[in-house]
């Protein structure tokens, strides 16, 4: 039998059955992303496999068109496959790929089966009130440092071989301005803050204009959020959602870590750029705000997560702008 919980473009039953040599299984949707769908496949012996399906965005969210955005956010099967091999070679624990393929519905879709981690996500771990008992800080730092010790002299996804003329900061600045415009067009409260937020962005980009480009860029996960960090039963840490790893300003990652893990003492190097750290925090806030107001306007106005995220970011941006006046 097959059970479904998401009405999406799904891999036909007979393909999964043949690919994994199963007589029966259940299929449960666990992630409904913009361009990637993730399912949990469970066979009759309770063995679990993860199924990824990549397709074009369909949710109806406003699409950004910043030039060079693929240097900042890469996605798709090719990146998944390449990055899995790269990180495995670096000794970083990521789900092992079992099988890949493609099928045709109205369009062509790539898909892959990967191992299901034996453990829990950090998000689930924290939801059970374990924040006071966290003992994995050193382990997490050590695993993240496996990313950071890998570097090259131009930024972008590991698959990208052409250098991009703009600096990391200029690319993020232009993307932030576009996302802010989107948010302002959808939310009157955000529109009232536009001048203040733009002034903050302009102040940082003026500082960066006088700086030399870095000699090298560290490899970063790009989105090491609690759902993407897994605590495995063997005591190790694994990472998922790896299509977006990139060589970039390491402050981009530190900004996220500081914002998401208030309990984590991140082992920053002695030399890092505090202005970049603050700039990337502002950048992430603007992106989060744009996604939240876009989702609330175009998808589900009652969504509790995005309602709370919108309110939190607006408060933080207001306080940041007030401090700059």
Overview of this protein structure:
It is a single chain. This protein is an alpha+beta fold. It folds into 2 domains: 13-117, 2-Layer Sandwich (Phosphorylase Kinase, domain 1), CATH 3.30.200; 120-324, Aminoglycoside phosphotransferase (APH), C-terminal lobe (Aminoglycoside 3'-phosphotransferase, Chain: A, domain 2). Helices cover 41% and strands 18% of the residues. The chain has helices at residues 13-20, 77-89, 122-127, 137-148, 168-186, 188-191, 194-208, 250-260, 274-298, 304-324, and strands at residues 25-32, 36-43, 48-54, 97-104, 108-115, 119-121, 151-152, 217-220, 229-232, 237-239, 246-248. Helix 9 crosses helix 10 (304-324). Mean pLDDT is 86; it is low at 1-8.
The CATH superfamily name of the largest domain is: Aminoglycoside phosphotransferase (APH), C-terminal lobe
Largest sheet: 5 strands, antiparallel
By CATH reckoning, the class of the largest domain would read Alpha Beta
List low-confidence stretches: 1-8
Give the end-to-end Cα distance, rounded to a whole number of Å.
63 Å
Average residue-wise pLDDT: 86
Number of domains: 2
Going by CATH, the architecture of the largest domain would be: Alpha-Beta Complex
Strand order of the largest sheet: 1-2-3-5-4
Find the CATH topology of the largest domain: Aminoglycoside 3'-phosphotransferase, Chain: A, domain 2
**How would you sum up the global shape?**
globular
- In terms of DSSP E residues, the strand content is 15-25%
Taking Cα atoms only, what radius of gyration do you get, to the nearest Å?
Answer: 21 Å
Tell me the structural class. Answer: alpha+beta
Helix segment count? 10
For the secondary structure, the number of strands is: 11
């Amino acid at each position: 039998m097959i059970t479904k919980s998401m009405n999406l473009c799904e891999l036909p039953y007979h393909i999964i059955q043949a690919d994994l040599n199963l007589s029966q299984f259940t299929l449960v949707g666990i992630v409904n992303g913009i361009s990637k769908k993730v399912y949990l496949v469970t066979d009759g012996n309770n063995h679990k496999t993860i199924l990824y399906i990549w397709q074009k965005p369909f949710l109806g969210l406003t699409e950004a068109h910043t030039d060079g955005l693929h240097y900042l956010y890469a996605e798709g099967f090719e990146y998944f496959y390449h990055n899995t091999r790269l990180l495995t070679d670096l000794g970083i624990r990521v789900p092992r790929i079992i099988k890949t393929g493609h099928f045709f519905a109205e369009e062509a879709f790539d898909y892959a089966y990967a191992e299901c981690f034996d453990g829990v996500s950090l998000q689930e771990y924290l939801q059970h009130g374990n924040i006071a008992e966290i003992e994995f800080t050193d382990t997490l730092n050590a695993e993240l440092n496996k990313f950071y010790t890998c570097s090259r002299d131009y930024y972008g996804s590991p698959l990208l071989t052409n250098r991009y003329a703009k600096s990391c900061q200029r690319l993020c600045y232009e993307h932030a301005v576009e996302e802010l415009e989107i948010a302002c067009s959808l939310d009157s409260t955000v529109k009232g803050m536009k001048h203040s937020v733009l002034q903050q962005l302009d102040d940082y980009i003026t500082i960066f204009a006088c700086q030399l480009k870095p000699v090298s860029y560290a490899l970063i996960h790009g989105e090491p959020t609690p759902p993407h960090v897994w605590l495995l039963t063997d005591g190790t840490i694994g990472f998922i959602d790896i299509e977006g790893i990139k060589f970039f300003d390491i402050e981009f990652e530190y900004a996220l870590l500081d914002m998401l893990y208030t309990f984590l003492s991140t082992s920053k190097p002695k030399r890092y750029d505090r202005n970049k750290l603050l700039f990337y925090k502002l950048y992430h806030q603007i992106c989060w705000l744009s996604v939240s107001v876009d989702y609330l306007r175009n998808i589900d106005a009652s969504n509790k997560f995005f309602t709370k995220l919108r309110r939190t970011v607006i408060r933080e941006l207001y306080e940041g702008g007030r401090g700059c006046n």
